[in-house]
Amino acid sequence: MKKPPWYQAGLKFSCTQCGNCCTGAPGYVYVNREEIERIAAFIGRTDGTLGKEHLRRVGFKYSLTENKKNGDCCFLKTEGGKRTCSIYPVRPLQCRTWPFWDVLLDTPEEWADAAKGCPGMNKGTAYDFVQIEIRRTAKRVEDLPT
Fold first, then answer.
1. Domain residues of the chain, as ranges?
2. Phi-psi bin for 126: left (phi > 0), alpha (psi -120 to 50), beta?
3. Which of 18, 40, 42, 100 is positioned for an S-S bond with 90, CB 3.0–4.6 A?
4. 137-140: which pairs have CB atoms within 8 A and are 24 or more residues apart?
5. Can you point out the beta strands (E) in 7-69?
6. For residue 11, how many C-alpha atoms fall within 13 Å in the half-sphere facing its CB?
7. Cα 110 from chain centroid (whole Å)
8. 20 or 17, greater pLDDT
9. What is the largest CA-CA distance in the chain?
10. Is the backbone peptide bond immediately before 99 cis, with ω within 30 degrees of 0?
11. Contact assessment for residue 31 and residue 60, using Cβ atoms and an 8 Å cutoff
């Protein structure tokens, strides 16, 4: 019989919009065609596309670009000393499902390590196992609860 996941009893998380998950070491925020179109419309691009300042090709996929100096996502902005996502209402699925990613849910140690840099982890809203699994396995923004 398969052992239940370590997070079976649930986890707490509330986004503080600190921007810590939007910066740091190089990585990828993958976006699909629908997400690109939503972001483009949100920032006022009528052609439904994003330019090289926002989008890069990675193999057969697309990822949002990062600031080469500090690793910030191209949509992370600093206003009044606070870092915020400038496309928060239309952010990609990968961003919406943080921190309920397979890599972070693999072990309690992975979760605890990520929580060192995320002030919202282990605090705030309680997510039960089903709510976590919905987020962990979502394939489209529409798969997530509103």
1. 11-143
2. beta
3. 42
4. 138/93, 138/96, 138/97, 139/93, 140/32, 140/34, 140/93
5. 11-13, 30-31, 55-58, 61-64
6. 27
7. 16
8. 20
9. 53
10. yes
11. no
Quickly tell me which residue has 């193999």 as its tokens. 59
Distance CA 103, CA 16 (A): 21
* pLDDT band of 48, cuts 50, 70, 90: very high
Backbone angles phi, psi at 90, to 5 degrees: -120, 20
- First-to-last alpha carbon distance for the chain, in angstroms, is 34
Q: How far apart are CA 87 and CA 23, in angstroms?
A: 15
Going by C-alpha positions, the residue among 115, 64, 68 that lies closest to residue 87 is 64
pLDDT of residue 17: 80
Place of tokens 């600190």: 18
Structure confidence at residue 58 (pLDDT): 96
Token readout for 109 is 């140690």
pLDDT computed for residue 146 by the predictor: 78
